[in-house]
Specification:
The chain is mainly beta. It has helices at 23-29, 150-162, 166-173, 186-195, and strands spanning 34-37, 40-43, 46-49, 54-61, 66-73, 77-84, 88-95, 100-107, 112-118, 124-128, 143-149, 202-214, 226-237, 251-262, 277-289. This is TRF2/HOY1 PH-like domain-containing protein.
Length: 293
């Protein structure tokens, strides 16, 4: 029987600690956003509260310099307001006494709007859509107000100030507000309307009218001289009918055309000088802009 004593096991060498990048480095390098739950969004006439059916999130992309307000509906997909950092004039954080803070973002130009939907096959579809805010407020007003709890807002402020890119510092260091007007310029609004894909921009109607005015050709003194036709046309061009605040005005064009077709006035029964038929070929192209313009 062996009496050899077993010694203690050799000490194991612990693995070297992993190098963990700083929070700001990780966020700037990763394409994934940092997101925070929003209590309420307010832009102009539009106010949206978070609910169990439609959650609100602010996604902040430190690496790609973007801000996204996300409205995640349980059944209808995610509507998004996307803002590139270069479109931000200024930004400020206000901490209230009632435990609610406000993040305000002032824009140079209107943002972009998207819809993200998931399909049964696992594919995700993202498409550009028109302004879905009340009376297209996000296309008119510069200031976006996002309401958070004070503690959440403080984390957002710390997150943004930790980004190492100079562009974020430039935005934070500008005076708020940076613009004298609460609304975008008329040119910016027109550009946004042109970019919308809801077909409100132009309604075109092509009208082709062929009038064959036949005289009786009889030599009965009834003055084949003049054939007059009165044409009264009323075109009602209806816009898309969406409840998007653009008034969906009916554009009406009243067209009064009086065609005086003068024959040669001679009593020339049997001649082939074409008293028989007068033909008027009328081509009208009507470009009817939205809102009745």
């Amino acid at each position: 029987m062996s009496t050899r004593k077993r010694g203690p096991p050799p000490p194991s060498q612990p693995p070297p600690p992993a190098k963990i990048p700083s929070t700001s480095q990780a966020r700037n390098r990763s394409p994934k956003p940092v997101y925070f739950r929003i209590n309420k969004i307010q832009v102009g006439e539009w106010t949206q509260d978070s609910s169990p059916i439609e959650a609100l999130r602010a996604r902040i992309y430190g690496g790609s310099n973007r801000l996204v307000w996300e409205l995640d509906h349980r059944h209808a997909g995610k509507r998004k307001i996307e803002i590139v950092l270069g479109n931000v004039s200024s930004m400020q954080f206000s901490f209230g006494n009632n435990a609610t803070g406000v993040m305000e973002v002032e824009l140079e130009n209107p943002p972009e709007f998207f819809l993200e939907t998931d399909h049964a096959d696992g594919n995700r579809k993202i498409e550009s859509i028109g302004d879905f805010t009340t009376n297209t407020s996000a296309s008119l007003y510069r200031h976006h107000k996002l309401f958070f709890g004070n503690d959440v807002l403080r984390k957002i402020q710390e997150t943004i100030t930790s980004f190492t890119k100079q562009e974020w510092d430039d935005v934070l260091n500008r005076q708020f507000p940076n613009k004298p007007d609460l609304q975008f310029s008329q040119d910016a609004q027109l550009n946004q309307e042109e970019d919308d894909g809801d077909a409100d921009a132009v309604a075109t109607k092509d009208l082709n009218i062929d009038l064959n005015v036949v005289q009786d050709g009889e030599d009965d003194g009834d003055a084949d001289a003049v054939a007059t036709k009165g044409l009264n046309i009323d075109l009602n061009v209806v816009q898309d009918g969406e409840d998007d605040g653009d008034a969906d005005t009916v554009a009406t064009k009243g067209l009064n055309i009086d065609l005086n077709v003068v024959q040669d006035g001679e009593h020339n029964q049997g001649e082939d000088d074409a008293d028989a038929v007068a033909t008027i070929d009328l081509n009208i192209d009507l470009n009817v802009g939205q809102d009745g313009v």
